[in-house]
């Protein structure tokens, strides 16, 4: 196995594009190394992207936020500006694994591993984030909801890598949140994950809302009808009922040892309502009661 440590995204892409055998990008390695140890994948080329400076950057300014694809959950937590702008995104990334895992696991790896249950992905989708993709054809941006196309399937072409995520500037009177249901208190994979972001006008009427679900389909889903259910309302009980119904209706889950289809459909509605309530509290400047895991 060949191990390369390029210092630019362009060089990483050249190496990937030129390799005819199985090649893999290595970020934190918390998925890849497990897959290599268990013979799920046996690459002839591993390209470590952690020495590429642009992939390690976080920036927050009036135009929005940029999170490098190789930024770890632990590094995200250190950014007060990012936490103030998109607390739900930071919380979602910090639900991944343990303290040790968070010191390694990256946002790019979480998306590009292609798991429908990846925790940071619904939060990024709810925030309206775009993935910046660099490859032999140049640089492009793709909405995060369009990057994963199925289990372990991505809309990346040969030689492309994700270099960053761009998030819009936080609008006034807005809030976001992410909740997941897990059977244990921590260190578990989401049975359902839900991200919500919403914006209010000065009178408290919702002007925009996005809801995304994880672990209820072959890929994380943006549920447009759930967002629409809040727009024009004061995010009251009736609007939250509609949001919950739309979230449940969008699910097309599998049965597995962690939850039946029926359970996931029901929990999606419950989490949608609770997550939206936290996002609402944040938009109103109130501290939310509980964030993170539901069990
Ligand atoms: C003990 C443990 C607990 C975990 N708990 C959770 C959890 O609670 N929630 C959760 O969502 N996940 C969990 N995970 C999975 C994993 O930690 C996350 O998916 C993590 O974010 C992966 O990031 P990484 O940097 O380690 O990715 P890596 O393992 O380095 O890469 C993962 C995949 O993405 C590809 N890749 C990485 N970066 C890029 C890029 N920039 N461009 C293109 N391709 C890229 C790699 O080639 C590889 O195929 C857990 C894993 C472990 C070991």
Describe this structure in words.
It is a single chain. This protein is α+β, with helices and mostly antiparallel strands and 295 residues long. It contains eleven helices and 15 strands. It has helices at residues 9-18, 32-37, 73-77, 80-85, 87-93, 99-102, 107-112, 120-126, 224-230, 237-250, 261-283; strands spanning 2-4, 23-26, 45-48, 58-61, 64-68, 130-135, 138-143, 148-150, 153-154, 161-168, 174-181, 192-200, 206-214, 221-222, 292-294. The chain binds flavin-adenine dinucleotide (FAD). Flavin-adenine dinucleotide (FAD) is lined by residues 24-32, 34, 49, 69, 95-97, 101, 104-106, 108-110, 112-113, 118-119, 161-162, 189.
Q: Which cofactors or ions or other ligands sit in this model?
A: flavin-adenine dinucleotide
Fraction of residues in helices?
Answer: 25-40%
Q: Please state the overall shape, judged from the principal axes of the Cα atoms.
A: globular
Total count of helical runs of at least 4 residues: 11
Overall pLDDT level: 95
> Helices and strands: which structural class?
alpha+beta
Q: How many strand units?
A: 15
Give start-end ranges of low-pLDDT stretches: none
End-to-end separation in angstroms reads: 42 Å
Give a quick account of the main beta sheet: strands, pairing sense, barrel closure.
5 strands, antiparallel
Radius of gyration: 19 Å
Which strand order does the major sheet show? 4-5-10-6-7
Fraction of residues in β-strands? 25-35%
Please trace the helix and strand order, writing H or E for each element: EHEHEEEHHHHHHEEEEEEEEEHHHE
